[in-house]
Give the backbone structure.
Amino acid sequence: MAKTYHLVGAFDRHNYGDILFPLVHTEQLLANGISRDQIRYVAITAADLTQDGGYATKSVKELLSSPLNQDDVVVMCGGDILSADWMLMVAHLHSTVFLKAARVARRLLGVVRTNDMARWLLGEKNAFPYVISKNDCEASVFFTAVGGAGFKSDLHVQRVAAELKQTDGVSVRDKEIQQLLGKAGVSAALVPDTALIMSEFFTPDVLRARQWKTKLKVHGAFDENRYFSFQGAKRLLEGHLDELTSEIIKTYQLTGLAPMFVPIGRAPDHEDHVVLEALYRRTVAANIPCAYQDSEHILDIMTSLALARTYVGTSLHGAITTYSFGHKPTALFCNEVKKLKDFLNSWLMPGDYALHETAQFADRVHQLIRSDFNIQGLIALKEHKTAVKNELKLYV
């Protein structure tokens, strides 16, 4: 009997990185001879993001309510899922106000207690949203290059570790999480984020052939062959618009690269489009050539990032896309986005990326790309992609 592959992740909200995982895993499965009708998609809720290049999902609750056996393979596809809890995940799917209230409750009562409360109220079977183990089903279960930057307590780590010990394989994407789980008795392999192999399937030529500019807003003499991509989450950028506008203009003056503003996440707690629209208007008012990618389709976003000479922003998967295509990323407010900082420090050569704790970036970007737009660590990148593909073969 043919196996059925249940790809699990946060595929039910508009966030570029989360949608990348099932896209890449699907392409790799197809490359390994698995047919599309053997693949299913699972998230916290049943949703349909096909119009944005994503997938129609069924819920985790529905998955675990169905009979699963050794012909079923459950794959936790990646992302910062180990430290996710029921309270926060449900909040992410509602509103910013709900999200703020959930964070207050977690701070007052602790993550584990609020998680157990939310889980009980929701009637969920598995201990944490994206932690499924043989305690929940009889299927084979694999965790592939996952993260866990949001752990808040030793108790939280221990509870998750106990579940991970009841699986068929665990790999993580950064050294800190590997060490954290190691102390809790879980031996996890270290593998780069699985989205890194996107450029193996979606080459620059393939992406250029798409109608990716249909919703692109352009001002002035914007050159689509000479630009840098810029992105940022609302919660990180909204108090720094004046400074960021100055840095964006300075970057153009120093490098000759015009900015393209690329919203990556539109879900609550991301809302990139809110601040990027404001920055686009300010840049237009300064009469600087610029563009704004208004498409929500994942491949239009990927193209906008992949064809840029360099990237500046707060998104882990904005940086990973840039690195996948051999270019240099710059991280803003890196102390506020631990998973981004951890990934860059774990996998990229020192001269191939820049970390900034603040909104000031123009001089460093100029220095970073002065000699070459392309990374120096091309051999390492090739090795990293091979490591990802080998990891994904383990569950086929």
The chain has 17 helices and 15 strands. The longest helix spans residues 16-31.
